[in-house]
Amino acid sequence: MAEAMAERYNRDSEPTTRTLLRRVLDTADTHTPRRRRSARIGAQKALLETPSSRRLSTPTKMNVRRGSHRARSIGRLAHVHTSGNLEEQTPRTLLKNIILTAPESSIMTPKSVVKPVPTPQVVRSSRQESSRGSLELQLPELEPPTTLALGLLAPGRRKQRLRLSVFQQEMDQGLPLSQAEPRGNASASSLTSSLSLTFASPLQTQSVQRPGLARRPPTRRAVDVGAFLQDLRDTSLALASPGDSLRTPVATLPTDTVLEDTQPFSQPLVGHSPSVYHSLPFLSHTEAENSERAVSRRTQSSGSRLQNHNPGKPAQLLAGKAKKIDVLAVSLPNNSSAISGEDGVEPLQDGVGEEAEERMEESLSVSEVMGSTGTQGSVRTEKSKGHGEMTEALEAKEPEGSSEDEDISGRTASPELASSTTEFLQARRPQFLEPAPPPSTTVLSSEPLEPLPTRHHPRARTHGPRPRQDPHKTGLSHYVKLFSFYAKMPMEKKALEMVEKCLDKYFQHLCDDLEVFSAHAGRKTVRPEDLELLMRRQGLVNDQVSLHVLVERHLPLEYRQLLIPCAFSGNSVFPAQ
Amino acid sequence: MAFSTTVFQRKYIKRKAPRGFLKRVFKRQKPHLRLETSSDLLVHLNCLLFVHRLAEESRMNAFENKYGIIKKEHVQAAAKITKLSTNFKLGTTNLGTFGLHLKKLTFRSYYKTRFCELLVSHFLREVD
């Protein structure tokens, strides 16, 4: 019977250790006259047969070991009987070899690994116990070996358990851990934490084990704001110190404020200078960053490197933040206009481009909060004016500034905002102590009185004449933009004009060629074939590169659908050929 | 059945072709001629490629002279080279180049170029 089974096994599989063991087991079972174990033998055989088809290594080994254990436990009889089969095979030797060489897989306990050879019986017994415990009755069987650990559910190895216990001890002691099996330990820690409440800081350990997953608490914002406030205070102090002479026009300002001020919260702006800075931190994060940057620039006294950034940032800011008026409109209108005012006045004062940029930045950042296009426009124009004016001649500049301010104010959408901006322009001066001469103030004060008449002029100037070239140029500008995009380099304006001329000539040549081609084909309509011929002549279309390839490369999908015929459902091709 | 309207996947096309502008330009130049729908897009494609070549050429010029900015001179030089390479204005080409082209072209295009050759010779005779 055993041989039959063995033969069956032979047929089923190669002479692997498993099959050999099975054979051994069979032989051993048949030869062991044990009544006690009869039931067990039967069960074991059943067990054997079921996994035999599956050829699972561990259960077979398990069964094998159980069988072997039983065989061994039987005693000398079994031994004799098994040794009786030595003629055919050498089960004991086989088993010994297996025990020696078998990989210490999942079921195997580390203890068994530790003691491979010396006492096979003891080893096997231990293995059997552990294996039995792990396979059949995990919880109750595991308990005795896991006296150290706290009742793990997972079929862990003894080594793992030991490590866990060690780990637990270490955890209790609060020592850092460096485990070779972080996963197991993590799971163990989680399990043990669930079971016992003695773990000091499981999260910390997990983070220690997996530093990449640790998350830092976001504490940066508070720090930034604080630093920003500090910077603001420093700069305000620095700026406030130099000039006391600017206090004189303050007397004129309140009247203006009373006359033109329509903002509900326009109070004496001297007191608002700190509030400006304080209110700014309450802006959104990006705005704070912008103002921070502005402040930092002030402090660092960097060059005019940010002129390029200024147009980009305000555009972004404006686009993004135009809707945040409600939150900050209460405290900010004063400040924004104040900043814008200061912005407008500063370039008059000194040729420090950086400061102008910063003010512009601030004013822009705040102007978005205002959310009014008028202020934005005014700020922008002020900024541009600030960029342009870097000289120090105040009085010479003032008329320019005033005229430009007129223009600026003229462009404001609402006279109120213009008035507020101008008012704060004036108000800002004393705070930043710029030598704001009275004529400029008078001019500025006169500005709000004439926003309406001045408003139309600049607009009429730009949009008055509608030349024939205009739409032509706007169409060409499309390709000029493409040129600048393809060039990937900054371009001069003259170069762009040159490109326009080239495009003009190109279009003329193109039309002539198309006329020739279509006339040659006897048509009066220009067809795609003419275009293909043109491109072939130009060398864009070869035998290697066809027109369709170029269409695919350079045109968007929608145009490709229109140009390249494609088969659709219902036996139709679009576009029709 | 996708005859009348191809269903676009999105309503907004990036890099739209200024079809109205192109048609207007063509009409201004050649009022007696008509532009077809698809050829409009191919004209746009041609313009794209031309602009691309121009930009590449001018960029190379700027790099050679070690300029960080593209200047007018670079663009001019680039335009000259590009226009020469594109064989504009049939009259400007040589028959020799046509001969070179003939070797590479396919059957159909060969005949087309032959006709073009005739046209060129015709024009040249006119000029002479």
Automatic annotation (TrEMBL), chain A:
Transmembrane segments: none
Low complexity: compositionally biased ranges: 110-125, 131-141
Sequence ranges assigned to domain CENP-T/Histone H4 histone fold in this UniProt record: 473-567
One annotated Gene Ontology cellular component of this protein: nucleus
Domain Centromere kinetochore component CENP-T N-terminal: 5-431
Chain residue ranges for the region called Disordered: 49-70, 110-141, 287-315, 335-473
GO BP term, example: chromosome segregation
Superkingdom to which the source organism belongs: Eukaryota
Origin species: Mustela putorius furo
Gene Ontology molecular function, alphabetical: DNA binding; protein heterodimerization activity
Pfam name, any one: CENP-T_N
Purpose of the protein: Component of the CENPA-NAC (nucleosome-associated) complex, a complex that plays a central role in assembly of kinetochore proteins, mitotic progression and chromosome segregation. The CENPA-NAC complex recruits the CENPA-CAD (nucleosome distal) complex and may be involved in incorporation of newly synthesized CENPA into centromeres. Part of a nucleosome-associated complex that binds specifically to histone H3-containing nucleosomes at the centromere, as opposed to nucleosomes containing CENPA.
Name the record gives this protein: Centromere protein T
Family under the similarity heading: Belongs to the CENP-T/CNN1 family.
InterPro entries: CENP-T, CENP-T/H4_C, CENP-T_N, Histone-fold
Automatic annotation (TrEMBL), chain B:
GO (cellular component) term, any one: nucleoplasm
Major localization listed first in the record, in broad terms: nucleus
UniProt keyword annotations, A-Z: Cell cycle, Cell division, Centromere, Chromosome, DNA-binding, Kinetochore, Mitosis, Nucleus
InterPro entries, A to Z: CENP-W, CENP-W/WIP1, Histone-fold
Pfam families documented for this protein: CENP-W
Superkingdom of origin organism: Eukaryota
Single GO MF descriptor: protein heterodimerization activity
Membrane-spanning residues: none
Single GO BP term: chromosome segregation
Compartments reported by the entry: Chromosome, Centromere, Kinetochore; Nucleus
Task of the protein: Component of the CENPA-NAC (nucleosome-associated) complex, a complex that plays a central role in assembly of kinetochore proteins, mitotic progression and chromosome segregation. The CENPA-NAC complex recruits the CENPA-CAD (nucleosome distal) complex and may be involved in incorporation of newly synthesized CENPA into centromeres. Part of a nucleosome-associated complex that binds specifically to histone H3-containing nucleosomes at the centromere, as opposed to nucleosomes containing CENPA.
Family that this chain belongs to: Belongs to the CENP-W/WIP1 family.
Subunit structure: Heterodimer with CENPT; this dimer coassembles with CENPS-CENPX heterodimers at centromeres to form the tetrameric CENP-T-W-S-X complex, which is a subcomplex of the large constitutive centromere-associated network (CCAN, also known as the interphase centromere complex or ICEN). Interacts with NPM1.
Stated name of the protein: Centromere protein W
